[in-house]
Design goal:
This protein is an alpha+beta fold and about 290 residues long. It has two domains: about 5-150 and about 270-285, Jelly Rolls (Sandwich); about 155-255, Arc Repressor Mutant, subunit A. About 35% of the residues lie in helices and about 20% in strands. It contains eight helices and twelve strands. The strands form four sheets. A five-stranded antiparallel beta sheet has the order 7-4-9-2-12. A three-stranded antiparallel beta sheet has the order 6-5-8. Helix 1 runs antiparallel to helix 2 and helix 6 crosses helix 8 (about 240-250). The longest helix is centred in the middle third of the chain and has 19 residues, at about 125-145. The two termini are about 30 Å apart.
């Protein structure tokens, strides 16, 4: 999976967004915004802070600014409440952070979500201030009830890792494991463990996804290239290796790719561009925008 930066568009006059998703499933991504999620119905798996967390009905998780994460529903018709806000809404985040993203306590999330949704939809005078107050009240309860620690400065290794992912995406056709190790300044063994902890996959698997997605785009754009030319342009060592990996990841041979096919792990767009990590099957069923 490729970690990309997601950019949120808030309702005009507010720095808060609220909505519900059914069968939430998205890619590994990150954003400067903070995200508060709680399970209304069903069960959810969330990868955050290098760990997998399982959330059942009534449980919640807070994703801090800059943390890489992804999530997927574990049961049919899982419904998830989502509150997203700029970190400036709760200034204490500049000094403190939660020890664990998954919350141990129970908080009035459903009530706060309902109030937020109403405020953001009705847009009465000073609704932005009202929305920020609702979020601050919820976060105060959470930070009083959970274990918190003082921040010790930015994680330079994680920042370098995000730059590595962008560098690989830009030069995927020639990138190697050794290049990635040198970029991070780690030993091979440590880099392998770090990459798996950060993404939940290996560097080799990640690179195959990126290259296969590029091949899908070449095929869909109809550039008149032969399969051998596409294989070489995307960085595959041999046409046989290209065919094998392409079929494993898409379920189709390159020559029989259905028209309009979308790889289940899309990798389009650089991280400074707007990016929506939501995958097919995930449905936005309620939003403060409509």
């Amino acid at each position: 999976m490729l970690a990309k930066r997601e950019i949120w568009n808030y309702p005009e006059g507010a720095k808060v967004w609220a909505g519900k998703y059914r069968n939430s499933h998205n890619l590994l991504h990150w954003h400067f915004d903070c995200e508060f999620i709680s399970v209304e119905r069903g069960k959810l798996e969330v990868f955050c802070e290098k760990k997998l967390h399982t959330l059942s009905e009534g449980e919640a998780l807070f994703t801090d600014s800059g943390q890489m994460h992804y999530q997927r529903a574990l049961e049919p018709d899982t419904v998830l409440r989502v509150i997203v806000f700029e970190s400036s809404v709760f200034p204490a985040l500049e000094t403190f952070r939660l020890l664990s993203p998954k919350l141990a306590g129970v908080y009035p999330v459903a009530e706060a979500y309902a109030r937020l949704l109403r405020a953001l939809k009705e847009k009465k005078p000073f609704f932005g201030e009202e929305a920020r107050c609702i979020v601050s009240e919820l976060m105060i309860n959470v930070f009083r009830g959970e274990a918190v620690v003082r921040r010790t400065g930015g994680d330079r290794t994680e920042d370098a890792f995000k730059r590595l992912l962008e560098d690989v995406e830009e030069h995927y056709e020639e990138y190697t494991f050794s290049d990635a190790v040198a970029f991070m300044g780690m030993s091979e063994a440590y880099f392998s463990r770090y990459f798996k902890a950060m993404t939940g996959t290996t560097f080799s698997q990640y690179l195959n996804y990126v290259r296969t997605d590029a091949a899908v785009r070449f095929l869909q754009e109809g550039r008149g290239m032969t399969m051998t030319e596409i294989s070489e342009a995307c960085g595959f060592s041999t046409i046989r290796n290209f065919n094998r990996i392409f079929r494993e990841l898409t379920g189709h041979s390159p020559s029989r790719l259905p028209e309009g096919f979308v790889l289940s792990e899309p990798f389009s767009g650089r991280s400074e561009q707007a990016f929506r990590p939501t995958l097919l099957g995930c449905e936005l069923i309620e939003s403060c925008e409509g």
